[in-house]
Amino acid sequence: MRSAFEERLAELEARIVAAEQRADVAEQRAERAEAQAEGYLSGEEVEERLAKVERQASGEEGFSFNVYARSGLLIGDDGKSAEGGPYLTPAGSRGGAVGRLGNEPDTYAEAIFNYRMRFDNGAKAKYTTMLADGVSTSNDWTADESDLNVRQVYAEFSDLPSFTGAFENASIWAGKRFDRDNFDIHWLDSDIVFLAGTGGGIYDMQLADNWKSNLSFYGRSFADYSVDRENPGLSGDTDNLILTSNNYFGNWQWMINAMSAADNDDRDIGEHQEAAESGVNTMVAYHGDSFFGLGEGSFKAAVLHGQGLGGEVKAIGSDGNLTEDAASTRIGLYGTTYLAPRWRIAPALLAETSEDRYVQGDQYDWATLNVRLANELTDNFEMQYEASYQWMDLDPQGFKGLNAVDGDYTKLTVAPTFKPQIGGFWQRPEIRLFASWSDWDEALDGYSDEDALGSDGFTGGEWAFGLQSEVWF
Which of 68, 120, 126, 278 is such that its CA lies 20 to 30 A from the CA of 112? Predict the structure, then answer.
């Protein structure tokens, strides 16, 4: 009779044999899987798949999503919704923006969808669609007031192997888009220059060691206007075609735009004036990598001038009501820096003069000075302050019933602001509370019956309170 010890030993031997059998089966499965993988994928294919995963993780390939959004509530000292917006003043209708902090009653959102591809020959492609919507109501359901719009739809190709010489690093695009090299003064919610429409172009041609150039061709539709004076009911599209050359010489930029809108001069735009059929404008800008040479930071400065259809010098080619004698000159200047480790400042100046814009003899002159100051108190909290001053002297010569006015507008804002992390002018998202005080000369109330200034409950020396979120990524 076997002892208990012998039985235990036999049991252990049986378990060892079973374990060895399982190990053999696992090893055989691994060998089969390895052989199968080798049958389908080569080492190069495995490496390529890994590289693709890395490119997708870095955003070089695949889907990406970008956003700009703001939403807030603006309440007057009477407890009612307050008039606001960075183009609130009479000069705002001619591009005269004032500071936007504590002055925005709207909800506005941009959603940008990108898909990037990289091909075996090294070429890259990007497809972009941008949706945007803006409403002023505070309601959650805003379908009746929505301005939902597809603002951009375009494709862009780069790193094309067949491009050599001056075109080696160039990219081409076609569709509806904002020009890649637009730039703005964010604190005023105003572009210094804004080129957009539907067309095509080429970026980054290297014409010399220190000369890069972009070339684009845009179309913009003014509207369905009456184009036959003898038959006023006959209408058609009036399109403005814009040829743009944008050149960079180190930190300097020179942009020139020529435009033509066939038959636009057949329209009577009122006051016995004819619309312009052609125009030209130009811009010289400097993109600084310091705070006006005084310290660390950045600044941008630009001078723009246009005539005829080019008399709208900010939103290039967008105004079909300009006369052939229209002439405008605009300057923009802003910078950013730290005054101290936790104090940052961003001053801005924007001014424009224009004449014969819509009526012979009209004159629109304005200038805005704005300063944004911030004190970073903790890792998640800062105090923001903004002061805006705008001077204007406007003489519409009766255009659309508008009256001549001149005077000043002033706004001061204090905004306690929360952020996930502070650190710099462009750090978002943020949630801010604010209190704003604004005042203006009474003479400005008479510019227009439709202007917010002088309306019931909004006559100068006004307080506004609210909160707002602002997000971009």
Answer: 120
Is residue 88 within 8 A of residue 99, CB to CB? The reply is no
For the chain, what percent of residues have pLDDT higher than 70? 84
Look at residue 140 and give its three-state secondary structure: coil
Q: Could you report the per-residue pLDDT of 110-120, keeping only the tens digit for each?
A: 999 999 999 99
* Cβ neighbourhood burial of 338 (10 Å; 0-12, 13-18, 19+): middle
pLDDT digits (tens, 9 = 90+) for 392-409: 999 999 998 999 999 999
State the DSSP H helix or E strand holding residue 353, giving kind and residue range, or none if neither. Answer: strand 343-355
323: tokens are 């006369």
Mean pLDDT across the chain: 89
Stated as kind and residue range, the H or E segment containing 57 is helix 43-58
HEC per residue, 242-265: EEEEEEEECCEEEEEEEEECCCHH
Lookup: tokens for 324:
């052939």
Contact 94, 353 (CB under 8 A): no
Q: How far apart are CA 349 and CA 188, in angstroms?
A: 10
